[in-house]
Amino acid sequence: MRRIVRTLIALVVLGVAIGLFLTRPGNIPDGFTANTAANPEAGALIFAAAGCASCHTSPGSETDGLPVLAGGQVFASDFGTFYAPNISSDQTAGLGGWSLDEFARAVTVGVSPQGQHYYPAFPYSAYQHMTAADVANLFAYIQTLPGDATPSRAHDVGFPFNIRRGLGLWKLAFVSDNYVMAADTETLARGRYMVEALGHCTECHTPRNAVGGLDRSRWMAGAPNPSGKGTIPNITPAALEWSEGDLVEYFTSGFTPDYDSAGGKMAEVVENLSRLPETDRAAIAAYVKALPAVP
Q1: Which residues of the chain have pLDDT under 70?
Q2: pTM for the whole thing?
Q3: Cα 73 vs. chain centroid, distance in angstroms?
Q4: What distance in Å separates the CA atoms of residue 43 and residue 137, rounded to the nearest whole number?
Q5: Using one digit for the tens of pLDDT, what is the confidence trace for 123-143?
Q6: Which residues contact 56 (CB under 8 A, 6 or more apart)?
C-alpha cells in the first residue's frame, strides 16, 4: 500500500513539474536587442503601423497633439473584460522605467518584466515577428511621448482564466512563429510583415476557436466583431473584389470604390495606414489580393 501511495505522489510531483516546465514564461533570444541603434523617427512609423494609440489612448487625451498612452480602453470578451494598460513614458505607471529587453520580451513574447504571461488581448502572437530594430525604434518613440501617472486597471477575468500560468499552455497550442502566407517576392514579404506582424490585421479578420486561438483554416475570412455588434468582413478574394489600386486608395483616404468610407475602428486603422509610405500600403494590398479565397 505504501508503495502505491509513494508511486502516486511521485506521479503527481512529476505532473506538476512537467506542467510548470510547459507553462514557464518564455524569453527573447540572447542578444536580440544588441547593437540596435534606436531611431525615434522610424519608431513613429512603427507606432502607426502597429496601431498602438488606437488601444492605449483614451478618447480626447492628447498633449500638444501627441497621444497620451494612459490606457483604460475597455475590451469585452467571452473570457472576461480587459483594460488597455498605461504604456506611457511615466517612470512608475508606464514604461519609463523599463529596459529595452523588458519591452522586447513583453511585445514579442507576451511576458511582463515580473515574469507573468500577458493575456492575448495584447497581440504579441503577431508582434513576435517584429525585427529587433523595429522593437527598439518603437520603444524609443514611446519614450518621447508624454508620460501619465494614471495606474493601469486590473483586468476583470474569472476562474480559471485568471490563472495566468495556464496561458503558457495556450501559447504552446496557438502561438506559432511561422508565418501563414508564403511570400515569393519582396513586395509580398513586406505585405506579410505589415499584415501578420505590425498591423496584426488577422487578430480581427480571422475567426477564433472556443478557447480563443485563431482558426488558420479561415485566415482573414471574417469574424464576429469583439464588440458584439456585427461582423468583421471577409477580405479574401472570395468576398472582396477590389483591385490593388482600390485597396491602396482605401488605405490612404478611407474611401471605397463605391464612394463609401471607412467607419468605426477601421477609420482609425486607415488614419494610421495613411501615415505610412505608399510602398507599404501597396505591399499590404498585394498581400490581401494574394490570400487564398475562403468563402
Answers
A1: 1-22, 59-64
A2: 0.91
A3: 15
A4: 4
A5: 999 999 999 999 999 999 999
A6: 67, 69, 70, 71, 73, 84, 85, 86, 87
